[in-house]
Automatic annotation (TrEMBL):
Signal peptide: none annotated. Residues 51-125 form the D-glutamate N-acetyltransferase-like N-terminal domain. Residues 133-328 form the D-glutamate N-acetyltransferase-like C-terminal domain. Transmembrane segments: none annotated. This is DUF1611 domain-containing protein. The lineage of its organism: Bacteria, Pseudomonadati, Pseudomonadota, Alphaproteobacteria, Kordiimonadales. It comes from Kordiimonas sediminis.
Length: 334
């Protein structure tokens, strides 16, 4: 399992626009205490609103990992970044990337890191050893976010719940299963890079036995109805052994992201997820819905959330507009 050393210097490189820096933005939004500053090349078009720093300035302020927080076309590591990465290693930084291309496959970068005893983290890849899932009951409690599609707010919902639960003095830990979540949490496994036989076992590993009153909030991935990503979603359901499920949804989407398949109904999605979750936890149940209503007006969002709540007899929230207190309250019944 990946474990990153904080604090971070967030590298935005030559990001072409703000969206290209979404990984770094997520880290800054959810773990600002881990972020010393940002490093931008001269032609960078994005900013996080953090102090611009050189590698040495950030090191002197305590930064220990250079995080490449910018996305590139094809997930490539730009040749324009090479000198900066090598300089970071010379100073003593560990370097982490969430791109498809691997730092460890750049020969001189890999050699310098090895010579200096530093770590290169390719967090989008899972190179550890995992066991097959056992399905055996383990102590502690778990929440898993599932969705009608990918990219509907599963990470955001679980992070918001962790924040709200910790504010109440509850025992809660966000468990990351994707590259941005790993940067935010500082640890985790990118499950979409795990060999399929071991996905459920990897989830058991990142959410192990715990105190009876401790909640693991497991970041969901994909959708059981998505023809590209259903396998990962199923592995998460079985490995999580979730006591509580959160259904995540974006109400204006008509087709599934990246494919020409219609979005499933919320009813069908809840029914199938619940039946699959009950293989490893017969007591699994939905305790609420988290909806991204950003494309709706305030009035439309309020009406839609109330209609969902009435339809399913469960709290329906938008983690941004309404917060997630109603979901945390619902955990008391699990």
């Amino acid at each position: 399992m990946i474990n990153l050393q904080a604090p971070y210097l967030l590298f935005l490189g030559d990001a072409k626009d703000q969206l290209a820096a979404k990984t770094a933005q997520g880290i800054k939004d959810w773990r600002p205490e881990k972020c010393v500053g940002q490093l931008r090349l001269w032609d960078c078009k994005a900013t996080l609103g953090l102090q611009d720093m050189t590698l040495q300035e950030a090191w002197d302020k305590g930064a220990r990992t250079l995080v490449i927080g910018v996305a590139t076309r094809g997930g490539k590591i730009s040749a324009e970044w090479h000198d900066c990465i090598m300089e970071a290693l010379d100073i003593g930084y560990h370097v982490a990337s969430g791109l498809h291309a691997r730092l460890t496959q750049i020969a001189d970068v890999s050699k310098k890191a090895a010579d200096k005893g530093l770590d290169l983290f390719d967090v989008r890849h899972a190179d550890g050893t995992f066991e097959c899932g056992s399905g055996e009951k383990r102590s502690g409690k778990r929440v898993l976010a599932v969705g009608t599609d990918c990219s509907v707010g599963k990470m955001y919902a679980t992070l918001a719940m962790e924040c709200a639960m910790l504010a109440r003095g509850m025992k809660a830990t966000f468990r990351a299963t994707g590259q941005t979540g790993i940067f935010i949490a500082g640890s985790g496994v990118s499950v979409d890079a795990v060999v399929s036989d071991f996905i459920s076992g990897a989830v058991e590993q990142i959410a192990p036995a715990n105190d009876p009153d401790h909640w693991d909030l497991i970041e969901g991935q994909g959708s059981l109805f998505h023809p590209s990503f259903a396998g990962v979603s199923m592995g998460l359901l079985h490995g999580a052994q979730a006591d509580a499920l959160i259904m995540c949804h974006e109400p204006t989407r008509k087709t599934m992201r990246g494919v020409d398949y219609p979005l499933p109904s919320i009813e069908d999605c809840m029914d199938l997820n619940l039946r699959c979750a009950r293989l490893t936890n017969p007591n699994a149940k939905f305790i609420g819905l988290a909806v991204n209503t950003s494309a709706l007006s305030e009035a439309e969002a309020t009406t839609y959330l109330q209609e969902l709540s009435d339809q399913f007899g469960l709290p329906a929230v938008d983690p941004v507009r309404t917060g997630v207190d109603a979901l945390v309250d619902a955990l008391a019944s699990c």
